[in-house]
């Protein structure tokens, strides 16, 4: 591959990702005319049209879309290879982009550990994003993702961080007024405190029960859900970091303990990124320091 072809690929990727020649030229620090010439030369060398261009519209052709996706993957692999080859002669440095669930787990557990990590390694720039949405690590630019739940078999590197237990809790006053809760079916006529998941699935080896929340209090915030349960608004379904202290202090009581659910917390990383010393160092750091950080919530 000659330099002109390689420059054209880089320029084409920038145009595809920024949506215009002007924005791509600004991002690359080159003139719009030079950028356009490189993309045109690439199309001529390939013998195909990659972009539809009018005075008002710029979009990828069908071939252009496929070519972009393959070039993006190839460029990422080459960049990863370059970093891997040069890192052995360098101190831990560079950038790490991490995605994590938010709420108490992200804000009180993960974020403080990342702050401590960046203080210990000031040459590493850490970017943390909170999101409850599933992230496709192959397609995204994240180096490391913390996920809850069982993970499908894949080529990704997965390391177990912890296991979270989901508990069903209510205040003593609520239970005194409503009576004992001995089976999930007892929840059908009770007010529930729930977040984005309004259908609760209870699973045992020989039984499954689905409960649809039809009345109660809905808020997608674990801290508020815990407070609402303490105030007697209903039965809440929450991960144990939110409720363990309240259970110890007696402001909440666990019900249906035999229906608890355990959910793993895992760190996920593409193999190519895991080979980078800085990414592996962060994963090691989180696994090493998580137990002590989690202790106040246990």
Automatic annotation (TrEMBL):
Keyword set, alphabetical order: DNA-binding, Transcription, Transcription regulation
Q: Record's PROSITE patterns?
A: HTH_LYSR
Instruction: State the source organism's domain of life.
Output: Bacteria
Question: Is Transcription regulation among this UniProt entry's keywords?
Answer: yes
Q: Could you provide one GO biological process annotation from this protein's UniProt record?
A: DNA-templated transcription
Chain ranges of the HTH lysR-type domain:
1-61
Leader sequence segment: none
Cite the GO molecular-function annotations of the record: DNA-binding transcription factor activity; sequence-specific DNA binding
Is-annotated flag, keyword Chaperone?
no
Q: Which family does it belong to?
A: Belongs to the LysR transcriptional regulatory family.
| Name of the protein in question | LysR family transcriptional regulator
Taxonomic lineage from the root: Bacteria, Pseudomonadati, Pseudomonadota, Gammaproteobacteria, Oceanospirillales
């Amino acid at each position: 591959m000659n330099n002109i072809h390689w420059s054209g690929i880089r320029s084409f990727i920038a145009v595809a990702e920024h949506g215009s020649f002007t924005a791509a030229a600004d991002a690359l620090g080159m003139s719009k005319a030079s950028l356009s010439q490189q993309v045109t030369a690439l199309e001529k060398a390939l013998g195909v049209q990659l972009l539809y261009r009018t005075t008002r519209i710029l979009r990828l052709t069908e071939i252009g879309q496929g070519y972009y996706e393959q070039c993006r993957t190839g460029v990422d692999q080459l960049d990863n290879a370059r970093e891997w080859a040069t890192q052995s002669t360098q101190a831990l440095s560079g950038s790490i982009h991490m995605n994590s669930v938010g709420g108490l787990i992200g804000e009180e557990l993960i974020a403080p550990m990342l702050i401590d990590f960046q203080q210990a390694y000031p040459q590493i720039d850490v970017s943390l994003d909170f999101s409850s949405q599933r992230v496709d690590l192959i397609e995204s630019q994240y180096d490391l993702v913390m996920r809850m739940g069982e993970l499908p078999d894949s080529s990704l590197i997965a390391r177990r961080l912890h296991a979270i237990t989901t508990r069903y809790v209510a205040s003593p006053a609520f239970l005194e007024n409503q009576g004992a809760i001995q089976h999930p079916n007892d929840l059908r006529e009770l007010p529930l405190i729930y977040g984005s998941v309004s259908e609760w699935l209870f699973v045992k080896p020989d039984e499954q029960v689905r409960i649809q929340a039809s009345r109660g209090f809905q808020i997608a915030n674990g801290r508020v859900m815990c407070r609402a349960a303490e105030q007697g608004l209903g039965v809440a379904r929450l991960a144990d970091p939110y409720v363990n202290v309240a259970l110890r202090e007696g402001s909440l009581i666990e019900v249906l303990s035999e229906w608890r659910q355990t959910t793993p917390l895992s760190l996920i990383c593409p193999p190519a990124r895991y080979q980078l010393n800085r990414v592996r160092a962060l994963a090691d750091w989180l696994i090493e320091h998580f137990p002590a950080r989690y202790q106040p919530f246990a």
